[in-house]
Amino acid sequence: MEKAKIDFLKTTLSLYIDHTTVLAKLQQPNSEFVILDVRNAPAAIKKDQIKGAIAMPAKDLGSRLSELDHRKTYVVYDWTAGTTLGKVALLTLLSADFKAYELSCALEGWKGMHLPIEALSI
Amino acid sequence: MEKAKIDFLKTTLSLYIDHTTVLAKLQQPNSEFVILDVRNAPAAIKKDQIKGAIAMPAKDLGSRLSELDHRKTYVVYDWTAGTTLGKVALLTLLSADFKAYELSCALEGWKGMHLPIEALSI
Amino acid sequence: MEKAKIDFLKTTLSLYIDHTTVLAKLQQPNSEFVILDVRNAPAAIKKDQIKGAIAMPAKDLGSRLSELDHRKTYVVYDWTAGTTLGKVALLTLLSADFKAYELSCALEGWKGMHLPIEALSI
Predict the structure, then answer these.
(1) Neighbours of C118 (CB within 10 A)
(2) Residue ranges per domain, chain C?
(3) Could you tell me the pLDDT band of residue B68, with boundaries at 50, 70 and 90?
(4) How high does pLDDT run on average in chain B?
(5) B92 to chain C: which residues are within 8 Å by CB?
(6) A14 vs B1, B12, B104: nearest CB
(7) pLDDT tens-digit profile of A82-101?
(8) In whole angstroms, what is the distance from residue C89 CA to residue C76 CA?
(9) Of B110, C77, C97, C108, which has the maximum CB count within 10 A?
């Protein structure tokens, strides 16, 4: 059972990337990291987003994969860690052979740490 | 590893149903969907619930399975997505061969979307 | 698929321990249960903790395993259930053959239930 628990935890943790790592990766020259905001809400509801993120609603992701680049690594996030939307987006990306992670703690955690965000024009 | 991640995400997501799907299913005539409120708290603490839900505390579920119908599909929810109670209830239902899902984002998400709730008489 | 779901839920739930069980175990004479606060924040940010917890930041855990006792059972917690830090700590402990669980609902849930906490001296 311990082996099953350990494997389970390793796989769970392999899906996530934390904000510290994301910030460090983004600061490298020619960073291959790209943040995708996969929230389905319109800009008027979202109001702001992680600085530099690309809006790519989870509901559109499957039909917009041609806009993505297999040399990049994508970090997806939704409002909070409790939703399933980030996992839906991550599954779409991994199934299409993209390198991708879900942002640990989502937008809620990013804001809670007072990390860079930007207002959305409505 | 990607295969392990993809299988893991598919299984995770297969446990949940989102509020949009639940609402659509409930509006069908003779809907087979039934929402179970599995919170263990008394009505005075719960105060309200998802409209039309049946109170079926997780702690009692195992001894009340005879009240359920194998032709139905059950959607369980707890206060928030961060608790384990919904998973405990879901495990009980699936192990007894019922069709069941956990409501994605739980009651907290349902209220956050301003979906129909009803006050509980105390 | 139902078998996969059931196994998945069993493994998920096997990682957690709920506050009721923790409190009952701690009240036994010569309890083998020890609560580890694995938050990485300094005391000035944490401000308080679960009563009787030992501060063992997840970032230091790997290098401080010699301080732990294989006869004990460790319960780790982070700020909320949505973070991955508790799982990181749990993986470290289980991989080193310690008996360990993550506290269901984390510190947020413990405080929400008004269970015993204590202020941290700064």
Answers:
(1) 11
(2) 15-119
(3) very high
(4) 95
(5) none
(6) B1
(7) 889 999 999 999 999 999 99
(8) 7
(9) C77
Q: What is the DSSP letter of A99?
A: E
Position B20 scores a pLDDT of 93
Query: Quick check: A84 and B13 CB within 8 A?
Result: yes
Query: Which residues in chain C (36-95) have CB-CB distances under 8 A to chain B?
Result: 80-82
Cβ-contact C1, B14 below 8 angstroms: yes
What per-residue confidence (pLDDT) applies to C121?
A: 87
pLDDT, one tens digit per residue, over C69-86 is: 999 999 999 999 888 999
Name the helix (H) or strand (E) containing C37. Answer: strand C33-37
| A104 and C CB contact within 8 Å | yes
CATH T-level topology, domain B15-119: Oxidized Rhodanese; domain 1 (3.40.250)
Nearest by Cα to B34 from B118, B122, B105, B98 = B98
CB contact under 8 A, C2 and B82: no
Residue whose structure tokens are 């910030």? A23
- Burial-class residue B37 by CB neighbours within 10 Å (0-12, 13-18, 19+): buried
Residues 6+ apart with CB under 8 A from C108: B82, C79, C80, C81
**Whole-structure pTM value:** 0.93
Which token pair is C56? 């063992």
